[in-house]
Amino acid sequence: MKRSPSKRGFVPAFKKNKLGMVGLVGVALFIMVGLAAPLLAAYPKGYGTELYMKPSLLHPFGTDGLGLDILSQIIWGARTSIYVSFVAVLLAFAIGVPAGLVSGYFKGWAGGVIDTLIDVFLTLPILPLIIVIAAVIGSSIGNVAVVIGLFSWPSLARVTRNATLRVSEMQFVEAARCLGIKKRAILFKHILIVIIGPILVNLTLVMATSVLSEAGLSFLGLGDPTTWSWGTIIKKAWDAGAVIDTPNPWWWWFSPSMAIILYVVCFNSLGNAINDALNPKSRD
Asked: In the predicted model, is pLDDT for residue 7 greater than 60?
């Protein structure tokens, strides 16, 4: 049976990509910071006495209008971002991959219905729908993560479908059919292993865009006000006039903005490196 690219080809090709290695290290750091947030910083709450303090050794990212340490907010915001990203990825994978496999493998009505459903979702104005649904069901961080995940599956399903269409006509799939292997086993034990590369690439994009979506919802006031996130920090800075008014504590909105940018860039770099390493031409 045909299998995914071997480690002998993929790993050396990935290591040669410097941006990919930087992205991998960055992703690992974000995940570790998010998971270890309780050990790295106290949860920012209440009021402090040092308002609008500029970045210093005591407060590397400064303080906000309530005297709270912004570095602590960013650390706990990383925890929220990791949570939202992984929930969105799990939902997108659980819905999008099976839908794409069925749509690409079965040529009858089942595949046609799923393919039409994918096309419909891809043409919908996603951001307005996310805003409306988040406003209706509530703004808890769990609800926000689920809504983002439910609208992240169509692109993953389309990638999976296209890859399945290409692989399903290969000889090892025909051999599996001739051996009487069940269709479910062919889909999930044989085809999925071969097409896992482009799926992984798309999942890194979901990880990045989910944080952008959460930050956008939080900035619009539809995020969870009881949970720290990078979008919530920017929202608080904007509401306090820290972005356009004078005096302008630039560090209040600059730090979370840079965290969002670095998070997205790291996952995009990782995805591009995986894609390049899986491309046989890039390994020659």
From this structure: no
Indicate the pLDDT class of residue 3, thresholds 50, 70 and 90: very low
Tell me which residue range forms the domain holding 124: 7-283
> Is 133 within a domain?
yes
Determine contact, residues 65/242, Cβ cutoff 8 Å: yes
Q: Is residue 92 part of a domain?
A: yes
Distance separating alpha carbons of residues 207 and 149, to the nearest angstrom: 10
**Residue 179 domain-assigned (yes or no):** yes
Per-residue pLDDT tens over the stretch 258-271: 999 999 999 999 98
CB neighbours of residue 196 within 10 Å: 18
Q: What are phi and psi of 258, to 5 degrees?
A: -65, -35
- CA–CA dist 60, 74 (Å, integer): 11
2 in a structural domain: no
